[in-house]
Design a protein that fits this description.
382 residues, mainly alpha
Length: 382
């Protein structure tokens, strides 16, 4: 195989990859720079309320980005109806969060998160990869502008308001789709199984990325949460590879395209990225983030998680493209159960190391289960 010819022939995935890598890089720089301005406790407090907003979004996002992508790719005009249902649920979640925490910024962020996920799923389903890239990058740039701008005006309490404003451009796409595609609730009933399964997958999979903050803060404190959040920020960057691959594979698998060569290259790349996290990153932390040196061992452990995560995307994409969401739900559920019990048991005893071991174990458990499930169904991943 001519690697160079293969790589440059993948124009669409290059577009998605460019947006995700550059955009996530911009976002990471913002969070890393913010970590140099505030202490771990303040950093942890911000991420605690981000976790609350994230939980509100997860529970409200009835129409997951994956479901939107699959139906739009198949030209089933159900997306506006699913948008409406999710936004209605999001509005209710925002009200509840405001009444519980009296945080207007966190309440508004729930709606921002929902609009972001819905519109990205729609653009990918339409295979408007260039448009997806432009909007994705715009949101990340606005995160820096508004986030730092509001921080300079109001301190760390203003950061979340800046994040809320970064999602405003997506409203234009939402309004356009509502005006051109009528609501049709009759399309929902025959597809409720797949929609509900995807909702379960989304909640069970992503709750692990939010509930960790909600567990750590009250049990171990904001300072440890701040250190943990910085370590996880590095993992998020490393997980860009499986994230990009999954977004592309879902559209291709849904259309019946073969992607075997891409999967082989992705697996090799994940091993290289893991090695970078284990060897190189520990040398940089004391220099750039002297207040966060407690994250070093945790980052080395977390780096290994990219390998099972990459493998898992191959199998999850195939199952979702066939509208078989049962096994991914179980896989994600096993992962979150591991996170909850691991944090409660290992966190108080081993601190950051215990938390990072739990995340790694969760990644392996999810992938092992979904691989076994796929093999049981005699599905070929090619």
């Amino acid at each position: 195989m001519n690697f160079k010819k293969f790589l440059f022939g993948q124009k669409d995935i290059m577009s998605i990859g460019f947006a995700n890598i550059l955009g996530s890089g911009i976002s990471a720089i913002f969070w890393f720079f913010l970590a140099t301005l505030i202490n771990p406790e303040e950093y942890g407090q911000i991420h605690y309320f981000l976790g609350i907003a994230g939980m509100g979004q997860l529970l409200s996002l009835v129409a997951t980005p994956n479901a939107i992508t699959v139906y739009v790719a198949k030209n089933i005009k159900i997306h506006s109806t699913l948008f409406f249902i999710s936004l209605l649920a999001g509005g209710l979640s925002s009200i509840v969060i405001f009444l519980l925490f009296f945080r207007l910024d966190t309440s508004l962020l729930v709606l921002g998160y929902i609009i972001f996920e819905l519109m990205n799923g729609f653009l990918l389903g339409r295979k408007l990869f260039s448009t997806y890239s432009k909007f994705f990058l715009s949101q990340k740039i606005l995160t820096v502008i508004f986030g730092l701008g509001f921080y300079s005006l109001f301190g760390f309490d203003g950061v979340i308001y800046g994040l809320v404003l970064s999602y405003v451009p997506y409203i234009w796409i939402l309004i356009k789709e509502f005006s051109t595609t009528k609501l049709n609730f009759s399309l929902v009933k025959p597809r409720k199984g797949f929609i509900i399964n995807n909702y379960g997958i989304n909640v069970s999979g992503a709750v692990g990325g939010q509930i960790d903050k909600l567990i750590i803060a009250p049990i171990l404190g904001f300072e440890l949460l701040g250190n943990y959040s910085l370590a996880m920020q590095f993992l998020v960057i490393m997980l860009l590879l499986p994230t990009i691959i999954f977004k592309y594979l879902l559209t291709q698998d849904s259309s019946g395209q073969k992607t075997g060569n891409l999967k082989k290259i992705s697996l090799l790349a994940s091993i290289g990225i893991a090695a970078f996290g284990i060897i190189i990153l520990p040398m940089l932390i004391p220099i750039v983030f002297p207040q966060f040196i407690d994250t070093i061992i945790a980052i080395q452990i977390l780096s290994v998680a990219i390998i099972p995560a990459t493998i898992g995307t191959f199998y999850e994409s195939k199952l979702l493209s066939l509208e078989k969401g049962k096994f991914p739900i179980i896989s994600k559920s096993l992962g979150i159960i591991t996170v909850i019990f691991g944090f409660l048991i290992l966190g108080p005893i081993y601190g950051m190391v215990g938390l990072s071991i739990t995340i790694l174990a969760s990644s392996f458990i999810e992938t092992i289960f979904i691989v076994i499930a796929t093999k049981t169904m005699n599905l070929k991943i090619r």
